[in-house]
């Protein structure tokens, strides 16, 4: 310290001063751009060396206070953007923006936003329709609502700084992101529709009061609906124009809007002052605004000048213009309107003045129906009720039906805008003071203006004028303008500019609100609207705002738009009140608002008023708004970003959780309330990821989202060093729980060893009364290996600890084979082996599992074991009664365990275990040495058993023998089991053990691996099969006499129980059984479990790889050589085949994998997947033959990219729903490929190629290469046809029939080629193609018993059809049907495929059990009896692994085959047409007619390419060869 001090004194933090050389991490409180040296110098001379290492994470108090004091989070509003625009090219300087006080910063902006279009355009009409009392009540309720909301808002706003977003920020930070996002969107929509309302008001003033002649759709002479439609259309056109102009102004720069803001505010203030001045003037000098009334109906002032029927002019009586409006002539004897004739014309004063007493007449409401007359109170009229209404356009009519709730919805937008001050908190000198004072003052001022306006309008203006919405009876003047002084134009222009300003303000504020929501990231799909121009202008948000605003413009009616935005604003205000009430009632520590004049009761009252007004305005709009908000809430809850803002909803959750936990502690749960609360013990890999994710799938299925679930994991190490690993593991667990939709908690424990960590989880998991009562742990993986034997020890300790803690223990074995949450069992059984009473837990497990969709359709079977002295019949009755009381529906079966002699195998296994324990005890080995010795002894023991049971004596194993192989975790085909400990006390927490074999894990001949011991070949009859082994066993007899008889009995019972379970539950989807607990004597723990083993040679790779290799040769060599027959297109034929095949196989792996091999979110790959993908590739290559030489490689890849999905979908649909027999692919492969290719070539028709092409020539070498391809296809075609058939006889038949068919077609091809040739010679085209026809013809029936003769006949028939097709059908298709089948795929694949399909149908119809025997139902699996059919049980006695079918008859299966043929042809043809249309696009580099069949277009060809061949080329037909 002395040295450091000296250096500081000398350098004083200068460049030479060293300071503390310790490196520091970047800190949010210290400039991260500072270099390490500068960082180390920051603390020199500051007397803070003691805390220097903490400075990166904990700043100095002085730094913290300075940052807090200078905090400025301005909203992304006009001022910042204006400064950014002005300073884009200028050097940036740190200039403190001028701060505003209460009046300029809050009071006037709120005043401008609250006073608006409703006051000028609708206030007089509201008073006229609702009366002074009714309108005053509306105004009072609405103003009270906003005042209460302002009080709540003031409390929230003074509880911290309110940055961008205003009310959205307040609600989201108080109620959480879900409520904040929902209400924020509602507030945004309200502001946007407010802009539409202001624009509509602006257009209404412009077209009705300023320049009516500007209307595009003329309204003169129109009546009723026509006039209304014309007005609305004018509003739409001009509204769209004004909206576009305003959006452009806002986009160009909001600085222009800000500069005009003061002008707009002045217009509002001057207009209001003019109204008050006019009211005062009416008290002594009322203005002259006469209104003409006919009877008691108000007349429009258009069309006449004198309010009289006749006048005296000189000595004559003449009629007026008014007379001519209602009569057919101007003469006194004219025929006039009946109402006009019966009633007098009266002229009244529209504005009698404040002292006239008109207030009494306007005191009560006068609601009208749409198109009804505006009638003057106190004047009688003569009306004939039966007379039709005429000349209605001469009267002032009501444009809408008015009622009280409508008036509320229209008026409420006039009191919105109270958030303007809180949105500007960053611009205020003292926001904590200005926001409450300014907002409340503005609301008080505007409330006084609105309330006084209601009274003054009712006291000054006549009722008919008040109800005249558009001033039709006062010469088209704005009604409120008639009251203004000095001129009505003051109000007209003032209101026009104020509405323009309000519209601009809305279009400026709404995009910024949306931008604030988008930048918060809580709504993922809105994130794009968080971006903008370089200066922060929300360009995308402005575009969306304009589009939504256009919706309001298209509505075109101000009265219809007003209730919409009322809903959104009311919802926003409601949640502001809720936020304040919630924070106040929860008394959260951070709730310390400076504004003290609030109370939770006032907030609740405000919230209630908002909710009431929503339904008063429009109940259906209220429901729609709530649905929108609810949808946004749920979307954010499920898909939105995680935000932790310390919101009040979380506080409610904490309070409720604390209360519930305290209640749970009061008393133990009753049996009726008991349910499994599961602690899942998981293991982690080196990357801290879960090793066995299916544990969570099983937990999710068992819990179905209910009850407590704790997923625990252990990290080995110390807390200080391994905390990051624990955090990573916890995140991994949470992510996986979210994927599995498992509701619960994750808990990661760090300990010096995994054994202690697991013990800590079992002891300390849960909280208070909410603790686990069951433990789910997987069977230890690879525990038989020496380096993994500690897993066995840990597992045994878990069993002991759960038993000691009275916890149920569930142990699934081979958990990776369990069904995922996406799988469904459509049938099957859940078998419960109830051996000992456990309090009902074993019965509860299948009930819980069947609540989940995976197990819902499985039925429950219960087996119980009876001894010889038990009454089996009575046990069954008692068990059925027990199930009845439990309200469980299940089949019941009592299994009798026969007494039998203990086998030699049982004695031997018991002896091996006891010798092992005794040897270890005598050796006094350490724990690790003992574990290694246990493994070696076990291996020796198992080796001796193998020697006594040589497997080469039994190459084909029985069902019972198959279970001997063991196959623990490494063998996915093995079925699954659960082991668990046993507790003596029969309480609900007694442990049980569900064992779950799954269909995916089952294969023919495999059975359940039992619990305690491996079952070997000696079980059946060891003395008869293995005489040497029996001799050895009898030599061991003296040692048997010293065995522990208890162990012998346990081994014997385990062996017998295994046999019974294997026999009874062979086909069960799930097996649940309770098993004995661990031995009480710990010295025998190493015998608690038994090893399993796998047999690698049983892997499917060794069975299928040879077939895969054969098909590989066909695809890449056979097809490639076959397509290289053109002299100038050898490269294209072979190389493009290589390219297309490679791409198609990869593409098919994805699509076929998605439709057929997709499980648990993954596509499972294997050799069979590759074989299926190569079949799909063959489809593409066959179609390729139709367009050979006429397409570019890009077109070929596009064709493959489109054909593979269509084929995969067709294949999936046919196999899943039609379920046909098509082993050789004649239907799905050959027919689909053929007609798909024909569809493509039909669209790509080239008329110039019908007469042939000079490059369609072959050479001696090219024909040899093509014949080589034919030979490869011919040789390996049996592998192609037999690849997917059943192993055994079916596959044997497939190979034989294919070879016979190919042989027949080959011989016939040579014969027909010479016969049909004019010179009697063999055509190479026939050799290359027609010889393969037999392989296709036998495809659909290749695995059926059709006899060799039938296969030979099919080969001949297919060859004849193919040969005749080449000679006659292909030219016909090219000339007449525009199908240029280049390689004749219709002949080799289409015609032969149809023959093969017909042969398959015939073979199905002729197939009987007499011919096939029981194997009929293996070859035709869908004809097998359905599950539950007694015939199926009889067949399974002969074929144990026979699967249930659909019970189809031969005729039904034949019809499905026919449907598959028709459907495949239709799907392929349509797909080919669509693909051809896409390939015809000009962007895919299609070759010209001249460049077809030419390698030089796409390849760098050798020099000898253009040289003439030694042998003269032979011109070939267009229909030359084919593709397989």
Describe this structure as you would to a colleague.
The chain has about 1500 residues and is mainly alpha-helical. The chain is about 55% helix and about 5% strand. The strands form six sheets. It has a five-stranded parallel β-sheet, with helices on both faces. A hairpin with a 2-residue loop joins strand 3 and strand 4 (about 315-320). Helix 39 (about 1165-1185) packs parallel to helix 41 (about 1225-1245). Mean pLDDT is about 75; it is low at about 1-50, about 65-95, about 920-1040, about 1090-1095 and about 1510-1524.
What proportion of the residues is helical, as a percent range?
40-55%
The largest beta-sheet arranges its strands as 8-7-6-9-10
Low-confidence stretches: 1-48, 64-95, 919-1040, 1090-1095, 1508-1524
The N- to C-terminal Cα distance equals 88 Å
The secondary structure category is mainly alpha
- The gyration radius over C-alpha positions equals 46 Å
The overall pLDDT, averaged over residues, is 77
What summary fits the major beta sheet? Answer: 5 strands, parallel
Please sum up the structure shown.
The chain has 1524 residues and is mainly alpha-helical. The chain has 51 helices and 19 strands. 47% of the residues are buried.
